[in-house]
Structures are given as C-alpha cells and as structure tokens.
Amino acid sequence: MGKKGKKEKKVKGAEKTAAKMEKKVSKRSKREEDDLEALIAEFQSLDAKKTQVVETTCPPPSPRLNGSLSAHPEKDELILFGGEFFNGKKTYLYNDLFFYNIRKNTWVKSEIPNPPPPRCSHQAVVVPQGGGQLWVFGGEFASPNGEQFYHYKDLWVLHFATHTWENIKAPGGPSGRSGHRMVLSKKQLLVFGGFHESTRDFIYYNDVYSFSLDTFSWSRLSPSGSAPSPRSACQMTSTPDGMGVIIYGGYSKVRVKKDVEKGTIHSDMFLLKREGKDEKWSWSRLNPSGSKPPPRSGFSLAVGPAGRAVLFGGVCDEEEEESLEGDFYNDLYLYDTVKNRWFPGVLRKVGKKTTSKRNKEMQTVSGQDDEEAAAPQGPTEIIKEIVTEDGTVMTIKEVIPGPQVQEEEEEEEEEEDGSATAPLIEPCPRSSAMATVRQGKLYLYGGMFEVGDRQFTLNDFYCLDLHKMDQWEVLVEMDPKTQEWLEESESEDDEEEEEEAKGAEGEEEESEEESEDEEDEEKHPAVQEGETVTDYQNRTEQYWIGLARANMGSDAKDKKVAKVALAMAKVFYEDQ
C-alpha cells in the first residue's frame, strides 16, 4: 500500500506542477495574445464582408508548410487549408481553401464566407456524415515578425454539401495549442498533445480529449497506464477496428538554463485503447518489430491502404555548441498496425528484370510478405543541387533506405540485362509537408528545407501509388522563381544608400562577374569521352574539393566539403 500511495502522490504532484506551469504560461502570454487578437479580428472583419461563395480556377497554391491536406470522403478531390510562409523577414499565415481535382489535375480556390482565421500547425479531419465534412481544430497565428504567437482553441466544420463554414462553440475542450494531433475514431474526434508557446515560456501537453460527433460535446479522457511524455508533432493513427489509436514519435523541449533550451526527438510508440462499452481507456507501450525510421521530427503522416500508417521525410537537428544543423529526409516508412511492424517503403526499379529474391523483396515493400524480408543494412545518400532565381545554389542530401546487398544485385542484373534504369524521380528532402492518401495513392504538397541560415518553402506536388510502389509522379514541379528570401539588415536606410552608391558600378561589376564565371567554367577539368559520372568524380575529386573548400571557407567540415565537391562535379558533368 505504501508504494502505491507514493506513486499516486507522485502522479498528483506532477499534475499539480503541470497545472502551475500552464497557469504561468497563460498569464505571461495573455498580453501577447490580446495584441494578436486585435490583428486576427481585422482579418475576420474583412472575411465577414464576403457574403457569397466564389470559386475560381487557379494555379497551384503558393509555397507553404504546416497546412492541412485532406482527401474528400466521396469525390476524387483533395482539400488544402491554411499554412504558413516565411521569407526571411516576414511571416505570412493563410486561411485560404483549395480543392484539387485528381482526375482533371486542376485547382479551384473556394472563398466561403466567415472562414476560420489564418493559421498553421492545426489539425483537419474529414468525416463522411452529412454529405462530407472537414473538421478543423486549433493551430497558431504569429505576428508578422514571428516573435509573438496566438494559439487557437476553436473548432470549425466545413460542410461540403452546403459550402458553409460553421464555428462549433462547445465548452470543456482542450486549451489553445498547435502541433497537436487529431483523428477520427468511431464517431468521435480524439485530440492528443501539442504545445503552447509565448515569448518567454512554453509548455507541451500529453492530455487526450474526445469530441462526440453525435452530441457535439467535449470530454477529457483519463486513461489508465503510463502515458507518453508531453510532445507535439507525433504520428497518431486509428487502429483498423476503431477501438484505439497509436502514437509514435514527436518532439518536445525543456529549459535547462535561463536562456538555454534543449530539444528531444521521441521515437517511442504507444497504444491508447478503448476498453469495453464504458468508454474506459488505457495506455500501453508498444515495441514494434521491423526496421524503424531513424529519429526525426517534422515528418509528414497519412493513413494508407489496410490502415497502414505512412511516414515521409522530416528532419533530425544536430545541436552543436553555437549552431544547429539539420539533416533532412525524403525516405518513406510504413507501419503495419495489425502486425505491429515497421518496414521501409523502397521503390521498385522500373524497366528491369528481377530475380526471385528481388521479387520477394518487392512484395515486402508493398506489404505482401514483409515478415520474411531481410532487414536493410543502411541508408544510401545522394547529393543534389538546385539553383534558384537569384543564383543561390542549394545542396540537398537525400537519404534513401535500402540494403547494400540489394543494390549490388541490381547492378549485376543491369549488366546482364543490358537495360538502363529509368531516372529516379522523387521529392527532395523536406519537413512539415502536407500529406494525405486517396484511393491507395499518397499525395505530398510543399514543406520546407534549410540551407545554412536560409529557409526554402516549397510548392511542388507529388503522387505515389502505394500498391505499385514503382515511381513518384510529379504533379507540380518546384518553381525556383517562388523562392523569395530577404536577408535581414541593421538598417534599411543603409541598404538604400549602398544601392545608390553602387548603382553606377553595378553593370560593370555584373559583366566582370559573368566573365569570371565563364573563365572558371573553362578551367574545370574536361569530361573525357565515354567517362561515367562516377569515374569523372573519382578522377577530379581533389580539384573539386579544393574549389568547394575555397567557396565554403576553412571552418567547414571535411565531410560537408566532400559532399559539396561531389555535387559540383556531378552538376558540371551533367551540363557537358
């Protein structure tokens, strides 16, 4: 009895501390939220002037991340709502609504009166009742300078049949938050986790709320067992029987000193299960088999065929003494909720014969025989470069999971067959992209990645058939012209004066730079006849390393210099 009493006392103490912290955060952030509420009210007053539904055929949505992409329950349509964009100086929040027609490959912007105010990092869930509905909860709004935050606790529903937004005002719901997760389980919406942040404080949650779609009422669940630690941006998937949800991963941070914060990327997994008809819930920890994704945050998630959880991309931040660098991913993992097993989503090679062993591995990818598959030996890295409108060169690392042995076998097969492999088309590594599945196909829109101090926000659009697992289809290519980035300066006036002073010399300098670039190109080692890109890289390795070192500076790590050198050599080779 003594041990049990101590444990209960400890739990109550932790709950009391969390409640105090929440109150503290709430107090300090109230002043900020009051300021932002006035700004949000302005947006709403402008929206209130719209009295009619206006639908316009349009280009794809602008670059963004942390919006929501949902599949229509009846039609071959996708619904994109909200999101954010940062150009280096200003943060933009959206509440625009787009419908994508899958068969026609067209976009329509739908302006419906009285929509939710602009937001990002919210959650949206589609339900089939009433002709189809889109339920939206929470999210955040930020001041243009990105220094103040407002966290929503509102609940909205978009009625597809009537093209109307409705604000559902039900008491007892979750506190304001973003980065939470929400799924449909039976006839209720389940909300888990998230965070609330102000200028000085932050708090992460691990509470669970249920919203009944029958009674339109909130209730806070009190599951038994050991719950996941507080976190945001986890993966939350309903079990196929509708009796529970699975939580995987997520992110949280703690303050270790007054001005020092430490982030944690979680990679644990839990099951929240409904017990009987009494609406009693319990937590239990899961230990899945198979090949788990490497730790990461900011991954995209969706639910694939047979209730499988689909995880794409993300970022793993490497914290050093004075810097924070991230490795971005574009790999794909699937979790079988029935077998409690992870497996990597490796694409089949197009236009190539395969051995019986290879066929078996491909069955594993599509989930037909994953129990017998061999575990992968390690990821493969591929370096790519993209040049933006302003001339910035983005060097991107792509990490592709797959057995080394398998790759060797494929090379041997290629030599035997004499057939060339089709070029690998896939999304570049990214985090915070929007994803959903419709008719067994995974759709992926936007997201972001970073190069140095610069953030690139994307508006490309991809599709992958999860049954075939053969190749990504590009629906919208990334447009370098959309990559706006404004560097911060100490004084805008100084900037203008510098521009005026240099205006007369601008054209002369530009022509000098162009001629220097042409000279540099002529000095690069020439590609020999019949030489492959790998042979060329090996032969000219030291030259390109020297050039990369000169561009990146003496402080750059050897490993990164070598990667950039390989990429530069490849780009030059492909241009010849």
UniProtKB/TrEMBL annotation:
Annotated Pfam families: Kelch_KLHDC2_KLHL20_DRC7
Domain of life: Eukaryota
Record field: compositional bias (Basic and acidic residues): 11-24
Chain segments carrying region Disordered: 1-33, 353-379, 400-432, 483-537
Compositionally skewed regions (Basic residues) per UniProt: 1-10
Biased composition regions of type Acidic residues, renumbered to the chain: 406-418, 485-521
Database matches in PANTHER family: KELCH DOMAIN-CONTAINING PROTEIN (PTHR46063), KELCH DOMAIN-CONTAINING PROTEIN 4 (PTHR46063:SF1)
Name this protein carries in UniProt: Kelch domain containing 4
Source lineage: Eukaryota, Metazoa, Chordata, Craniata, Vertebrata
Encoding gene (name): KLHDC4
